[in-house]
Amino acid sequence: MAQGTVQVTHTGTSRWRRRTGEYASLAAALEAAADGDVLTVAPGTYRENLVVQRAVTLRGPEGARGSVRIAPVDGVPLTVRASAVVQDLHVEGQDGAAPAVLVEEGTPELLDLRVVTRSASGIEVRGSARPTVRRCTVDNPAGVGIAVLDGGGGVFEECEVVSAGQAGVAVRSGAHPRLERCRIHHAAGSGLTATGDGSALEAVGCEVYEVRGSGVQITGRATAHLTDCDVHRTTADGVTLDTDAVLTLADCRIHDIPENAVDLRSRSVLTLTRTSVRQFGRNGLSVWDPGTRVDANQCEIFDSTGDYPAVWVSDGATAVLDSCRVHDVPDALFVLDRGSRADVVDSDLSQVRNTAVSVSDGATAQLDDCRIRDAATGAWFRDHGSGGTLNNCTLDGNRTGVIVTKGADPTIERCTVDSPTEAGVYVSAGGRGSFVNCRVTGSAGYGFHVIDGCRTTLRRCRTERCARGGYEFADGGPDTAHDSGPLVEDCTSDESGAPTPPTPPQPVVQTVGQSPGGLLGSIPGQRSTEQEPLIAGIGPQEPARTSKAVLGELDALVGLDSVKREVRALTDMIEVGRRRQRAGLKAASVKRHLVFTGSPGTGKTTVARLYGEILASLGVLEKGHLVEVSRVDLVGEHIGSTAIRTQEAFQRAHGGVLFIDEAYALSPEDAGRDFGKEAIDTLVKLMEDQRDSVVVIVAGYTAEMERFLSVNPGVASRFSRTITFGDYGPEELLRIVEQQADEHEYRLAPGAAEALTKYFTAIPKGPAFGNGRTARQTFEAMVERHASRVAQLAETSKDDLTLLYAEDLPELP
Predict the structure, then answer these.
(1) What is the per-residue pLDDT for 545?
(2) How many Cα atoms occupy the beta-carbon half-sphere of 502 within 13 Å?
(3) Using CA atoms, how far apart are residues 359 and 370, in angstroms rounded to an integer?
(4) 631: phi then psi, degrees, rounded to nearest 5
(5) Under a CB-based contact definition with an 8 Å cutoff, are residues 256 and 281 in contact?
(6) How far apart are CA 397 and CA 386, in angstroms?
(7) 48 with 30: CB under 8 angstroms?
(8) C-alpha distance from residue 635 to each of 17, 135, 674, 780 (Å)
(9) What is the b/e burial string over 425-453, where b = at least 16 CB atoms within 10 angstroms of the residue's CB?
């Protein structure tokens, strides 16, 4: 057969009608062919727009796959309008407004086609067409890989979309294809997308990966069913459902997703069965809006790479987890907003860094026959209207089993809290809750710890082997209502008989607050029998200042221009992050731990105090108070005591800032067997475990702090940035003295300011020089010398009592 010719084998019912002819063009061969004829195309490039309108077979020569190129200048290279067989062709298109292969009618078979094109779509199926497409490859960096539109259907088997400028596979306008064992990757849009009434997509054994949009996107009342599919390595969410979409995932795997693994909104419904979700950067399941629902059965959600809850249910949505496992995540299940609900049955929540179950803002959660293990908090019912039921659940090895705060009122029945490291049950800040037939065993703190006069109900509860006592009730002090306090019926302990609430007022114990972005910190330390300073005072506290007011005080400090810019940049990042979270967007991760370097007296402690107050005003920290420590406060005299001291300091700083001055002293250059390393190791761990409840600032001389940060590989990674406090110049030291004078109602006499500037220029800047501290000491010395001078006067005027002269300056050291 000659190059560039088409051989047509004409067939018929009678042997005498069978014949073979050769044609110079594909168009001529197709014109001459009848139903059942076979057109064999010789190798070559055909610049023709083919239209197949009869049930013929059109194929390339055997053993020379890809040798026939259909490549017209424009238009649709190959149109199929009959139940034909098209095989072993290489199709190229250049028309951005037209598909490369268009199937409009019939039930054709497209076999082993390679479509390399820059068209609107690589393969497009429309209308009544129901093709079978096998082993075809589409490479279309300009448009959609495969498009099925306008009621079209068909089966795609073992096909591959190797690139697409838009979606890999797009289903619209009532189309309903089936994909079997297909691969879709390197798409600039979603991997699989279906939208519109009546649109339906079925995929079995398919793989979607390396796409810049969502792996699977179902919207606008479309439906989809995926079985045994893999979705991974996307840029956006793994699976997205919106506006009455319906999707079923069975035996699927969704992993290596930087955003939400699955995101549902606007009355969408998702059913997952035996599906795994892992290595996701935001939420594993993110469920929003009234009418939106997810049902997960025998699924596993684990190995989060971000700082977000594994399952997020909000704005009136519903989630049902049955026989599921959620583990190795920052938080397991967050249910927020009135009307939102989560039902969890026979499921395991374990290895949770913060909170396994959090219920807030009027939401409801019901857990039956579940197991919660190795979490900072097992279940936290946070505020008024939030509640639900824990029934026949086991909470094992958590820091705290159940927390109830701020008017929340759950029912906890027949649950066991085993081996909590702080408290089995903790109720504070107006929390309520009913605990019926519950048991707390092996607590390192109290079994049931109820403070603030909370109206909690305990019926037929039991505590065993609780280190600090089975039951502890502390009311809210003299302002607490007389009829407040827990209701206790038929409760027992292995230490004593039934507990009774106390009658005399007892000191307020620190209450629990909410940490930033919904991620939770640790439980407050338990009350000791020894007298300890209270973290929260009994009396009324001053109202917290706004961040604007605190920043105003920061701006009023002398000098520190670069420091002010750094703090403002951090504040702006945190504030914008909060706004993005409220808008449902991903917030940039901001590590709040800081390193302050510079000489003594440059304002590091003052700025640390203001920084804590700013974070509290933004809701990032619960209180924002400053706890200042140094080596002597953290390092003990014998093995083990250092870790205890460090933990105690961390606990005092809960909800605020831990400021470690001269932190480099924890790691002296000739450390040997020094216990400072134990303090550093403990700090590194606590900074990770309680990263949302305590901000750590380490401070000291610049060179020494650089050495300190290099000692432990985990230390440097815990701090977001280093802020350098430069030395004050003579003019700035003068301004500090002027501020001190004004505050204490003194004035500088004429010539005193110039004398102070010369004094601060000449003063030695050795190790004893204290910058701002030196300025304050200079002012105090001037006041003393002024007093000695004025005391000798028989009569004094107001000027005599207020004016500081150059002669009042002390001698240079």
Answers:
(1) 67
(2) 18
(3) 16
(4) -55, -40
(5) no
(6) 25
(7) no
(8) 103, 69, 9, 34
(9) bbbbbbbbbbbbebbbbbbbbbbbbbbbb
564-601 residues labelled b (16+ CB within 10 A) or e (exposed): eebbeebbebbeebbeeeeeeeebeeeebbbbbbbbbb
pLDDT mean over 214-241: 97
Give the three-state DSSP class for 790. Answer: helix
What's the mean pLDDT when you consider all of the chain? 84
pLDDT tens for residues 180-201? 999 999 999 999 999 999 999 9
Reported as a pLDDT band with limits 50, 70 and 90, residue 634 is confident
Position of tokens 């599919």? 229
CA 464/CA 443 separation, integer angstroms: 8
Condensed to tens digits (0 to 9), the pLDDT of residues 644-703 reads: 778 888 888 888 888 888 888 777 655 455 566 777 777 877 877 777 788 888 888 777
pLDDT tens-digit series, residues 316-368: 999 999 999 999 999 999 999 999 999 999 999 999 999 999 999 899 999 99
Is residue 1 within 8 A of residue 7, CB to CB? The reply is yes
The pLDDT tens digits for 642-654 are 777 788 888 888 8
- Between CA 616 and CA 629 the distance in angstroms is 20
Q: pLDDT digits over 756-805, tens only? A: 888 888 877 665 565 677 787 888 888 888 888 888 888 888 888 888 88
User: Can you tell me the distance from the alpha carbon of 93 to that of 652, in angstroms, rounded to the nearest whole number?
Assistant: 70
Question: How many C-beta neighbours within 10 Å does residue 743 have?
Answer: 9
| pLDDT at residue 74, rounded to an integer | 93
**What angle do the packed helices 604-617 and 547-556 form, to 10 degrees?**
160
Q: What is the β-pairing status of strands 132-134 and 109-111?
A: parallel
Task: Give pLDDT, residue 92.
Answer: 95
Rg of the Cα atoms in the chain: 37
Q: What is the 3-state secondary structure (H, E, C) of 692-719?
A: CCCEEEEEECHHHHHHHHHHCHHHHHCC
The two three-digit tokens of residue 500, written as one number: 């009774």
Give the burial string for 411-424 (b: 16+ CB within 10 Å, else e).
ebbebbbbbbbbbb
Classify 779 as helix, strand or coil.
Answer: helix
d(CA 242, CA 219): 5
Cβ atoms of 679 and 641 within 8 Å: the answer is no
Residue 491: name the closest of 437, 550, 453 by CA. Answer: 437
Of 9-13, 24-28, 42-46, which gets the smallest average pLDDT?
Answer: 9-13
Backbone angles phi, psi at 147, to 5 degrees: -120, 130
Torsion (CA) 390, 395, 398, 404 in degrees, nearest 10: 20
Strand partners, 359: 335, 381
DSSP state of 757: H
| CA pair distance 358, 88, nearest whole angstrom | 58
Please state the separation of Cα 457 from the chain's center in Å: 35
Instruction: Supply the pLDDT for residue 604.
Output: 79
- State the sign of the Cα–Cα–Cα–Cα dihedral 772, 775, 777, 783: negative
Query: Angle, nearest 10°, between helix axes 772-790 and 730-743?
Result: 50
Residues 6+ apart with CB under 8 A from 31: none
